[in-house]
Design brief:
about 400 residues, alpha/beta, nine-stranded parallel sheet, eight-stranded mixed sheet, globular, binds N-(iminomethyl)-L-glutamic acid, binds fe (iii) ion
Length: about 400
């Protein structure tokens, strides 16, 4: 299939177009099955079996949402309301969701993941990472990962989310690094620890990460979300793919990230939904760190599934430029997941494509809160239509 008359194409490949976003004007894109086959100007586009007229609108790689907690039951709207009346966010809220998650059936948990992935896809996200962490027993963590592995691209074992009720912290760390890890490792690529005051300290984090690495998993860390601490330093030391949150950073943390391959994944929806100060994206970018944006979709600290929302907040309140934020939500997320096949639209890449109902990617930040996803293809397959500003009804209506 050829998508023609793309007003502005974001390729994220500087060899294909202008600037870090690799922008091409008046572009065309050829999809062949699950892959991108060709990128270039519409005037040079080869013939294809099927043609789609983008009518001058913008096309981007699908978003890569590299941080989510989707396997859960219930919700915590009251906790959110209490925060908005002045209560601080506390890691302990996780235990409420753990109780409800343990009581849910497999079908209920699977339906929840599907509902959220569907919400995400409808807003342009085509790669999803999902963690366990609301089971916190061997069986409940294994179940969460089994379900996640069926539904999303990237799966992370987060037995070390919080110490559950009824077990001593040291015994729980032994379980997470022992029997639980053994049960969970076959379903996951990554291991994560909530390294934070009130969750897991440096020694506990080390014990769990060491065991995870021995089991063949690669670290990514919840780091420096609620205060200063050892998380970012450990992430860099363990060559983690990503240090997530990065809200409270010392100069040494920033320098460590800048001198490493560890991506700083910022989650603006969390600060929005917890009324915390935003992470300093400019400081990280100017120091030379690689920055990704993700939703952290979860029922506690941030219940958004919307990458466009995160982009808008990152631009408005974290002083990222629209170009930086869009790169961070696509190519940055791919780097945080060590993927080269997504977050980019170049020959050979996965055919994960979003069409906006707008002429430029800048509208993602310029028109906050307005649905702008006109069409999404995941692995070359069109996602069920979503109404969007300027989409002229989508679906058959815009097909030539
Ligand atoms: O990324 N920080 C730890 N975990 C989640 C919150 C989970 C919850 O509150 O239920 C986070 O913010
Ligand atoms: Fe998280």
């Amino acid at each position: 299939m050829v998508i023609r008359n793309i007003g502005e194409l974001v390729t994220n490949d500087p060899a294909l177009g202008h600037g870090p976003l690799g922008l091409v004007r008046d572009a065309a894109l050829v999809l062949d099955g699950e892959r991108v086959a060709w990128v270039g100007p519409t005037s040079d586009a080869p013939a294809a079996d099927e043609a789609f007229d983008a009518k001058g609108r913008a096309v981007l790689p699908g978003f890569v949402d590299s941080h989510g907690h989707l396997v859960f039951a219930g919700e915590r709207a009251e906790e959110f309301a209490a925060r908005m009346s002045g209560e601080p966010y506390k890691a302990g809220g996780i235990r409420t969701t753990v109780e409800e998650t343990r009581a849910a059936t497999d079908d209920q948990l699977r339906a929840n993941v599907r509902r959220l992935v569907d919400e995400m896809t409808g807003q342009g996200t085509t790669t999803v990472e999902c963690k366990s962490g609301y089971g916190l027993t061997v069986e409940d963590e294994r179940r969460a990962l089994r379900i996640a592995a069926d539904e999303v691209d990237e799966v992370t074992y987060l037995g070390a989310h919080v110490v559950p009720q009824g077990i001593e912290p040291d015994d729980y760390v032994k379980l997470v690094a022992g029997e639980m890890l053994e049960a969970c490792a076959p379903y996951a690529r990554w291991i994560d620890v909530f390294c934070e005051h009130g969750a897991f300290d440096e020694d506990q984090t080390r014990e769990i990460l060491d065991a995870g690495v021995r089991a063949g998993l690669t670290p990514r860390l919840h780091a420096n979300q609620l205060g200063h601490g050892p998380g970012v330093r450990l992430a860099v030391e363990y060559q983690a793919a990503s240090a997530d949150h990065c809200t409270f950073l010392t100069d040494a943390d920033v320098a460590a990230l800048a001198g490493s391959q560890t991506v700083a994944t910022l989650l603006p929806g969390v600060e929005f939904s917890t009324r915390q100060p935003y992470p300093d994206a400019r400081r990280l970018i100017e120091a030379g760190a690689t920055v990704a944006l993700a939703t952290d979709c979860n029922p506690g600290s941030c219940y958004t599934s919307s990458m466009p929302f995160c982009i808008a907040v990152a631009v408005r309140d974290m002083r990222m430029t629209p170009a930086e934020a869009v790169w961070a939500a696509t190519a940055g997320g791919a780097k945080a997941l060590r993927r080269t096949d997504v977050g980019v639209l170049a020959p050979g890449a996965r055919a994960d494509v979003q069409l906006l109902g707008a002429p430029s990617y800048i509208h993602l930040a310029y028109r906050p809160g307005v649905p702008q996803t006109a069409a999404v293809w995941k692995r070359g397959v069109r996602h069920p239509d979503r109404r969007a500003a300027g989409s002229e009804g989508g679906g058959a209506g815009v097909r030539e």
